[in-house]
Amino acid sequence: MPEFLEFGKHTTYVVSSFALVMVVLAGNVVFARRRLNALVNRTRRRLSAEEKS
Amino acid sequence: MWKFIHKFGSPPHFYRLSVVLTPWFGWAAAILITAGTLGGLYLAPPDYQQGEGFRIIYVHVPSASMSMFVYVNMALAAAVGLIWRIKLAHAVAAAAAPIGASFTFLALATGSIWAKPMWGTWWVWDARLTSELVLLFLYFGYMALRAAIDDENRADRASALLAIIGLINIPIIKYSVEWWNTLHQPATISKMGKPAMDGDMLTWLLLNIAGFMCFFIAVLLISARAEVIRRARDQKWLKQALGVT
Amino acid sequence: MEVPGLGQAFALQVGRDMRLAFRHLGQLANPLMFFIMVTTLFPLALNPSPQLLEAIAPGVVWVAALLASLLASESLFRQDVDDGTMEQLALSPQPLALMLLAKTAAHWLMTGLPLVLISPIVAYGLFLPQEAVPVTMGALALATPILSLIGGMMAALTVGLRRGGGLLSLLILPIAMPVLIFGARATDLAMTGMESVGAIYLLAALLLLAMSLSPFAMAAAMRISLD
Description:
The structure holds 3 protein chains of 3 kinds.
Chain A: H1 11-52
Chain B: H1 2-9, H2 11-43, H3 57-84, H4 87-119, H5 127-148, H6 152-184, H7 199-231, H8 235-242
Chain C: H1 6-23, H2 25-45, H3 50-73, H4 78-82, H5 85-91, H6 96-125, H7 133-158, H8 164-191, H9 197-226
Helix pairs in contact in C: 1-6, 2-3, 2-6, 3-6, 3-7, 3-8, 6-7, 6-9, 7-8, 7-9, 8-9
């Protein structure tokens, strides 16, 4: 693994910037999906509650 | 033509389409970004001047170009929503803003990480970094205005107008920053990231840009779906779409 | 009833706003006081050596002018919206864009113009070289109307909102950045004895662009806010 992440004298910078990009991109996906799921569940509950009443 | 726009612009149609398309763009993004990143990290030769540090270009340039692309798309969607009163367009604009802001943040962050080994400081008032910073402020202003208005309809239209004003100003800002920079740039700092690109490097870079584009579309489809649900007034369709019987 | 023509309506609106403003001179002086105070803070916070002050003078004058006009734009439409005058203007047969342009013009006459006139004194206090003063005044005379117009657009967008203050600066500052760049550069170039006419032309071009487009944006924004 260490030699896999070896980029000359700039290793830290290269690895950290790639890692940061991946983390932010993944965060975007997770955030968007969680928001959508929460909204869908809430709307579902609201709709079925209205159905019953 | 109008029939097509109305069909495409109708929330039920968009909802169905986005459910189908999201995985396609999502997987395309995953594959392209993986290929581009691995290629950029291992297959592309190091730059003869900047050495290995130059590999940051494979994430910096896609982020920077997407940040601008997303703003233009957001403003155009907002303009369509404002002019033809299409709610879906407002939903797309609202969904695009946070994604664009995170691309802008990434362009700034990777730019300053790159600046450290190249120029020895985390920040330089380079023309490109400075206009990215202003772009980030534009995104923040857009999101803050939207968050400050409670009424959905008014928030849509006011923020759409702001996005259009911002779009007209982007070329002015870019030009003025470049002009300011050429007057003040110390001669020792050469322009960032313009090494002679050979074909091999360009391939991986283009793969990553395409991957970022697919990523943007996939996340945009997910977020826009949430915005569409939030704005939906048609109960019958909502029940059908969400599977409530 | 006879409807006044465009020019007459414009003049009447400017006159009304000026008369109203003269009744509240205290409020009006706030941005001007702010401009002077901010420029006073720099010698106090740094050290009052003429070399240092001279070096930072263009930046200080322009940033202070930008902040002062930011402060002024807050109150541009608020009162008229609160007391319903704006509704009447929106319903009047005159184009709303023209009326809002008139209001902005009156606003500039009351807050922007004094700033231009007082700038030589401020510049003197900051040891700005004499030869840069006329250029600075000219550039300020071109730049402050642009700032008023930008402020007017953003004030119209945020006028009904409770938390206006911080939001307004977040909206105005990125858009106003080119004005700051060109203006400060004009002063800077004049200070070092170089030709500053390029920056002045750029400011004039920006002013023309702002005058031709922003009234319509202001009117659209005001209609959204009044809804």
